[in-house]
């Protein structure tokens, strides 16, 4: 069994990713490029590449470099995504499911309509 980076429990897996993503308001799962993608209001905010050991999430390009520099064991960008607003996240490197949830919610917020985000934030 793989454990989290902090050793506090089992590492997140694609089932956790799917469960957390689909719990976010307005989220739908749609296959694209032969992999699961997750969208809100027609905008993609999450993909699960075929090896299921990482996910790709939205990340403002100006913040991405700092994020990768601070935690390169968790975050990276493949060459074909260098010009995009996406960053990859290694699931086994996350501290726990709360960190995964925070990352997915942040990505969702970047794609969701403002009224849906406001409604979600009020409820949580």
Note the main sheet: 6 strands, antiparallel
> How much helicity do the residues have?
25-40%
**What oligomeric state do these chains adopt?**
single chain
Order of strands in the sheet with most strands: 1-2-3-4-6-5
Q: Determine the mean pLDDT.
A: 90
Element order, helices and strands?
HEEEEHEEHH
Strand content: 15-25%
Runs with pLDDT <50, length 5+? none
Number of contiguous helices = 4
Number of strands: 6
Distance between the termini: 32 Å
Structure class:
alpha+beta
Task: Give Rg in angstroms.
Answer: 14 Å
Molecular shape: globular
Jot down its keywords:
4 helices, globular, 35% helix, alpha+beta, 124 residues, six-stranded antiparallel β-sheet
Describe the fold and architecture.
There is one protein chain. With 124 residues, the protein is of the alpha+beta class. 35% of the residues lie in helices and 23% in strands. The chain has a 6-stranded antiparallel beta sheet. Strand 3 and strand 4 form a beta hairpin. Helix 1 packs across helix 3. The radius of gyration is 14 Å and the shape is globular. The termini are far apart.
């Amino acid at each position: 069994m793989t454990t989290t980076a902090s050793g506090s429990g089992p590492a997140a897996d694609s089932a956790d990713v799917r469960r957390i993503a689909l719990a976010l308001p307005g989220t739908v799962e749609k296959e694209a490029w032969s992999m699961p993608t997750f969208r809100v209001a027609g905008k993609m905010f999450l993909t699960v590449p075929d090896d299921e050991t990482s996910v790709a999430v939205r990340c403002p390009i100006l913040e991405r470099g700092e994020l990768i520099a601070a935690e390169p064991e968790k975050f990276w960008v493949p060459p074909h995504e260098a010009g995009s607003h996406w960053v990859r996240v290694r699931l086994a490197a996350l501290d726990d499911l709360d960190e995964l949830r925070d990352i997915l919610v942040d990505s969702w917020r970047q794609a969701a309509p403002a009224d849906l985000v406001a409604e979600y934030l009020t409820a949580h």
